Fold this protein.
Amino acid sequence: MHSQAFPSLARRRFAMSGLAIGAGALVGKGAQAGDAAAPARASGPIVLHGQSPRLTVHALNTFHGEAATGLRIDFHSFDGEDYALLGSFTLNANGRTDEPLLVGDSYRTGRYQLLLHVDDYFAQKKAPLPGWPFLTKVPIRFQVANAQERIHLPIQFGPWSYTYSRGS
């Protein structure tokens, strides 16, 4: 019985030493035991295709599982009292705008809104929805706090729900 327990104990010690060696390799030379992990941060604004900083959008239709080609979006900025229309656009075949929403001198800190015409989009696609559409016009409000950072807004939506996040 003693001889059967010994190989099991040896295997455990071997496995634990392997874990310790692997963990030691993952921890950098400068890391200390009490250091908290910090989120990764870029040293400056992200430059992509020579245009940075900027604001871009990408919308996906989760009902059909495709890019939101043809979705109309109204783009507004907050003027201190209400949202003022900056422009309207229709998404291209990739579910994106042809040009960034804001870039260069037009890209400023402030509060903005995208108004997605979801009801018109699904009506145009003749989507087989049971009854009246649940979502009609979907407002997405966000803030640009630092005009030196690139912001990308990925949006996913269907007839009954939507989600968006801040990307870069």
About this structure: Confidence is low (pLDDT under 50) at residues 42-47. The CA atoms of residues 152 and 167 lie 5 Å apart. The domain at 54-164 is CATH 2.60.40.180 (Immunoglobulin-like). The longest helix spans residues 2-26.
